[in-house]
Amino acid sequence: MLLLSTAYLAPVQYYAHLANAEEALIDIHEHYLKQTYRNRCIIAGPDGPVALSIPLEKASSHAEIREIRISDHGAWRHHHWNAIRSAYGHSPFFEYYADDFLPFYDKPAGFLIDYNEALQRLICSLLDIDTPTRFTTSFISPNQLLSDTLSVPLADLRATISPHCPLEAEPASLPAHFHPQAYYQVFQQRLGFLPNLSIIDLLFNMGPEGLIILKNSIY
């Protein structure tokens, strides 16, 4: 069973593990961490990787991630959708899926975990990922993971799947690891293949075949 953080349009690595897992827990009781995939994704723009961050309402330093609300500051929804359309408007499957994603950028959002979870459900549906997921009921500390108190073993990827963590840093305890598989990208001729971008890069470029890439990326 995987232990994952919530994530905004999470990277391919996240969904590769999810697609190959028996079950996954999403931690909603951890403290919010800045500059992570919890409220940030990375897409491929014409000139290279582009980071898109969701602005958040200020909260207590001890606030749990489930308490964090999304801010509408800076017209971020308009900015994100324009960036996504600019990056993938000419990709093979953008027009096919655009109407599924547009509602997420048409109206204000509430809690970050609810927004991320709704996007994740959509993506799993489009890619036929049927791994059961559920929220944690309390915070699971690293000490608990090292003890024998848990009813099932957990593979903790909360800190591993991060913009600041190299792919090879996945825990040695994992039964299988992420190895990015190359696939068609719109700007590949100019930029070369860019691994581990947001899952929408894989979805808009490869469509339903994205599941094959995800399945073949864990071994």
What order do the helices and strands come in, and which of them pair?
Blueprint: E1 2-5, H1 12-20, E2 24-27, E3 40-45, E4 48-53, H2 76-88, H3 94-101, H4 112-127, E5 133-135, H5 142-146, E6 155-156, H6 188-191, H7 199-206, H8 210-216
Parallel strand pairs: 1-2, 1-6, 2-5
Antiparallel strand pairs: 3-4
Describe this protein's structure.
The structure is a single chain. It contains 8 helices and 6 strands; from the N terminus they run βαβββαααβαβααα. It has 219 residues and is α/β, with parallel strands linked by helices. The strands form 2 sheets. The protein has a 4-stranded parallel sheet, with helices on one face. Strands 3-4 form a two-stranded antiparallel ribbon. Strand 3 (40-45) and strand 4 (48-53) form a beta hairpin. Helix 1 (12-20) crosses helix 8 (210-216). It is globular, with a radius of gyration of 17 Å. It starts with a strand and ends with a helix.
Radius of gyration: 17 Å
Largest sheet: 4 strands, parallel
Poorly predicted parts: none
Helix-strand sequence: EHEEEHHHEHEHHH
Sheet/helix structural class: alpha/beta
By DSSP, the count of extended strands is 6
Residue-averaged pLDDT: 94
Helical proportion, percent range: 25-40%
How far apart are the first and last residues' alpha carbons, in Å?
16 Å
The global form is globular
SS field, number of helical segments: 8
Number of domains: 1
